[in-house]
Amino acid sequence: MHLLGGLSPAQFLRDYWQKQPLLIRAALPGFHDPLSPEELAGLACEPGVEARLILEEDGEKPWTVRHGPFSEADFLKLPETHWTLLVQDAEKQAPMLLASFLEPFRFIPDWRRDDLMISYAPAHGSVGPHLDDYDVFLLQGLGRRRWRIGAGPVAGDDYLPDSELRILRQFTPAQEWILEAGDMLYLPPRLAHHGIALEPCLTYSIGFRAPGHRELLLGFMEFLGEAIDPEARYTDPDLTLQDNPGAIGAAALADIGRLLQHYLRTDPETVARWFGRFSTEPKPAFAAQPEPEPWSLAELQAHLQTGGALERHPGARFAYIEQAEFTLLFIDGQEFALGPAVAGLAPLLCRQRIFSYDRLRPAWREEAAQALLLDLLNEGYLVIYEDD
Ligand SMILES: [Mn+2]
């Protein structure tokens, strides 16, 4: 697998993932940019696109961030050098061009992936020396970029003031490389880095995510809370007289402790049912919308049998968990429990992106599978592009 410079994915995971940086020359030999700088700028002008322009200037506040969507006039007013355009979630915004771009990176589980961010910069363009909380693969496209990285993860948070970019006040580079088209740099979380465009360049950041501990616990509590009878309340028929009315007695505290333990269920099935939902919550901007005019089963069948396909909604998050009796399929925070007859659909839907009739045929024999696919289509998790 050339992507990892001769390492197998298993070797990469063992020795580099979350541990240390890796430079891979010609990770994608003969790499061709899937879009042009002009097309990227066009994306940054569309409503609902998370785009930023970062300008480096002299003076008190050397870094300025502007948020999109932008207009053509915004780009015409930019200086010749020293700026960067960043477009988040590019693979969801332009799935026709970019959805397959992430395929080689799927040796990391889908639920850990955040997005493909694409940046364009003219000469000297940079977002400053900074660190990120997440792993990233930085794949170089058009042009060359000089990357400098720090020696190890940064513990503190010594940033320049007033900066959402988290630009480091101090940065001591330990290594430096010039990346050309097809070269790639992997960085583990919190490793300081600074990339400067040597000429007009496109850089592709395959970014990951990892839930915060606080976010996990609060999310789990909310899930558990939904299952609790809202009328259930603390009771104390065994209340006994106490000396000081201001004291909270040991018996009351013990009751509360027992009550919390009763509800705090961390058995594997409960954790699976919650985490599948939690980890597939979509970014709000990409939530699927139900079909305004639902398809009938006959229409779907005719579409598939005449060569049409079903595709995953580009922003939808799919995952599955195999269990003893059911396979749990999760899409955008929704759970679908699939019995043995249709359980095979879950790994298929989660691995592939486009589903022809040939691909679906083994499952299509089951009525339950037909009903599920129709439901996913009408809920907007699967889509049909009419011009297919
Ligand atoms: Mn970064």
Please explain how this structure is put together.
With 388 residues, the protein is α+β, with helices and mostly antiparallel strands. It folds into two domains: 2-208, Cupin (Jelly Rolls); 284-383, 50S ribosomal protein L16 arginine hydroxylase, Chain A, Domain 2 (Malonyl-Coenzyme A Acyl Carrier Protein, domain 2, 3-Layer(aba) Sandwich). Helices cover 27% and strands 23% of the residues. The chain contains twelve helices and 17 strands. The protein has helices at residues 9-15, 37-43, 72-76, 90-93, 95-98, 213-226, 250-263, 268-279, 297-305, 345-351, 357-364, 367-379, and strands at residues 22-24, 51-56, 63-67, 83-87, 113-121, 136-140, 145-153, 175-179, 184-187, 191-197, 201-208, 310-312, 318-322, 327-331, 334-338, 354-355, 382-383. The strands form four sheets. It has an eight-stranded antiparallel beta sheet with strand order 1-9-6-11-5-4-2-3. It has a three-stranded antiparallel beta sheet with strand order 8-7-10, with no helix packed on it. Strand 2 (51-56) and strand 3 (63-67) form a beta hairpin. It binds manganese (II) ion. The site of manganese (II) ion (MN) has 3 residues, from loops.
